[in-house]
Amino acid sequence: MGPDPELVDDCVHCGFCLPTCPTYVLWGEEMDSPRGRIHLMQQHVEGAPLTDAMVGHWDACLGCMACVTACPSGVRYDRLIQQTRAEVEAEHERPRSERALRRLIFSVFPYPRRLRVLAGPLRLAQRTGLDRAVRRTGLLDRVAPSLAAMERLAPRLTKPEPLPARAPAAGVRRATVGLLTGCVQGAFFPGVNAATVRVLQAEGCDVVIPPEQGCCGALSAHSGREAEAQGFARAVVDAFASAEVDYVVVNAAGCGSVMKEYAELLGPEAQAFQDKVRDIAELLDELGPVATRHPLEMSVAYHDACHLGHAQGVRVQPRRLLTAIPGLELREIAESELCCGSAGIYNLLNPEPARELGDRKAANIVATGADVLVTANPGCLMQVAAAIEGADHPMRLAHTVEVLDASIRGYRLD
Fold it and tell me: How far is CA 334 from the centre of its chain?
């Protein structure tokens, strides 16, 4: 248990990670950089006890993996922070209020049915304006900042879009694809899942959606709750076991990143499943287009979700798909390697630094002058939407697959 000493020793403390680390960029504090956190891991490996200060520096990490991309020595910081957090969860006693908040988060967010139940009253509050009235009072910000962050981040909910258990390919079938519908994606962004199914059908895929699927385990794995993550992961593997699919497609970056590590989480028996996992942009690029793209006359700023760009290395594919749409102009965002501050549940546990990072990201997005912000993760969509709204700069936001769906169907992107 705890960080692997051999992985710790891989770090030569060169500092290439520093300018890519969001918390180091914000605070300039060595212990809130990847090499500083690894130094603390080394101290712990050598016998130093877990202290509140030590744990605080690890908790402040967003787990964005920008340092993994930047590291010339191939340090597996992703494995190290996950191992360290697992030991923290097992051995360290957090304050009562923090334990209560974490219990609340993990009793709701990894459960799609519970999220859908929560979506009902939230949709009503948005329709009646109660959510805005509560926000204007500032009461939640003063009494419960994390709950205030939850309310502020909640997207404008649309009508649920039920999905079939199986959707046939349009034209010649090129592949059979299983779709992970996700927790937050399914409850708060049902339109993304519906667009994913339509695009896959248009590109010649039969789409299978096992109704018994649940959480993939990403939130738990990234928070050090290893046994919980393993339980969720096994259930997902079992749900797709009888589906006989060529690929398992994911349209949420955080989910895809952990599913591509199921063999590490569950053991070699999960390797065959892991090998089938693809991000939606990755698969569409791999298959190549067959559906006609209609023009979309607009400019798009593309935001690399950290767990898509840094963790999965999927950067070129979504850009290639977007630039293939006639009339669409792609614009790059400054400081693209810096996290937006969402990072799973980071913006709920650490609302202030998350808001600073969100505001910074929003300013860089607005500076592009683009009509639409496009990204591939529900957490990023919520975080950036809240930041852009706070900047009083109205802007459309969309998932990559929603833009493709609009082009293929010949619809204007709303």
Answer: 20
Structural domains counted in the chain: 4
- Using DSSP's 3-state secondary structure scheme, residue 111 falls into coil
Is residue 209 within 8 A of residue 181, CB to CB? The reply is: yes
* Best CA proximity match to 342, nearest among 377, 371, 316: 377
Q: What is the DSSP string of 284-317?
A: HHHH---SPPPP--EEEEEP--HHHHTTT---HH
Q: CATH number of the domain that 389 lies in?
A: 3.40.50.11810
Give the DSSP per-residue string, 320-348. HHHHTSTTEEEEPPTTTTS--S-TTTHHH
Q: Is 151 helix (H, G, I), strand (E, B) or coil?
A: helix
> Which residues have a Cβ under 8 Å from the Cβ of 355 and sit 6 or more positions away?
149, 341, 347, 387
Which pLDDT score is estimated for 271?
97
Domain residues for 223? 166-286
Question: Is 374 strand, coil or helix?
Answer: strand
With contact defined as beta carbons under 8 Å apart, do 153 and 109 qualify?
A: no
pTM of the model: 0.92
Question: In the structure, what pLDDT confidence band is assigned to residue 143 with cuts at 50, 70 and 90?
Answer: low
Residue 175, domain member (yes or no): yes
- The 10s digit of each residue's pLDDT in 376-401 is 999 999 899 889 887 777 789 999 99
| 227 CB neighbour count, 10 Å cutoff | 10
Give yes or no: residues 346 and 324 share one domain.
yes
Please give the structure tokens belonging to residue 92: 């360290």
Kindly state whether residues 298 and 276 are assigned to the same domain. Answer: no
Q: Do 175 and 260 belong together in one domain? A: yes
160 within domain boundaries: no
Element (H, E) at 279: strand 277-279
User: Does 148 score more than 90 pLDDT?
Assistant: no
